[in-house]
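Support request, please re-run this one:
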Amino acid sequence: MTSTTGFGALEGLRVLDFTQALAGPFCTQILADHGADVIKIEAPDSGDFARDSGPFHAADVDHKQSGYFHSINRNKKSISIDLKTAAGRAIVFKMLPQFDVVVENFRAGVMDRLGLSYEAMRTHNPRLVYATVRGFGDARSGASPYTDWPAFDVVSQAMGGMMGITGMDRDHPVKTGPGVGDTIPALYLAFGILAAVLRARTTGQGQFVDVAMLDAVLAVSERIVHQRSFGKITAGPEGNFHPFLVPFGVYPAKDGHVAIGCPNDAFFRELCQGLDLIDLRDDPAVATTADRRARPDYVNGAVSTRTAQLTKAELMTRLGGKVPFGPVYDIDEIIADPHFAARDMLAEIECPGIPETLRIAGVPVKFSETPGGVKHRAPDHGEHTDLVLLASGFTAGEISAWRRDGIIH
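Re-run finished. Output below.
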């Protein structure tokens, strides 16, 4: 790891980060991974509750180094301010002119009640981009009947439509494994922030940027909307196969499963050749895409019977590079596959008190001239309070007094 100073396409972008849990920190992590100076503001008593969520390394007996926290807060700095005090809020207001962006993911109204609303902050910095992500959005953008409801990933997956089309059958909807109900909204918010910053740098005017977790999940589940309006179909879980492409889905192997996608005739013939399914290839009943779509059970059954006779490695030898194909990997297989090392997708960090480097996911967006990266572990709670406040123009005497009064940590 190296210093976070001077790297990435977002070098010079300054972000005040009031977020916690997953959706908000994942958004600001994306910015930090590409060089933005992200200052995470945490409460003096506990800080981001992800710090206590684990998992924890066996050597970390005090549970101070959460894997969850490090994965989504790397490359950031942490300062600890009590925002419930007038003095704490005054510190934030004085810092605002030095920042381009504020990001928060509290429930609707929390920042307003603290006196730190968008309207209050913009009086101190008219070019400020104030960005929010919460379950049902903010009333400024559209007053949902659920605006005041709390939400987590599982809620947005359920209500946004994703869970309703995931599972083996209509009676058993299944949550998607990763927390996509958080991370997808975070990706949309990161885009929104950069679009608003670009405009602010042109016009001098900031704005309020709002993403509802439900909205983002629906946006990436877009197929269910056009299926309903164009095809008059209410989509449901389709198991491991595609609703209108065949063969396309997850198939058994002797030692696990593989993914295969053959949406056209050329790929289908190549698949049959690779699997020695010559009779299937030459069967006039499934010669075209439309024919196969009309006989999904027949085609998928024939392919499944054959793939189940071969290991994932054997299938990769037969099909890899010839048809869209990939084994279903667990994390140990991901670590062993040279693709992820070549693409620098298994980043390593060093954590205080742990005698080995630890892996977290790397940065997927690659730049030829201004590469991002994982440059530093996530910060300890309040680790950079003095550094940031001194750089913001406060005196050592002010900082000592605030610490004595419990306003900073």
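The two ends are 26 Å apart (CA to CA). The first helix runs from residue 23 to 33.
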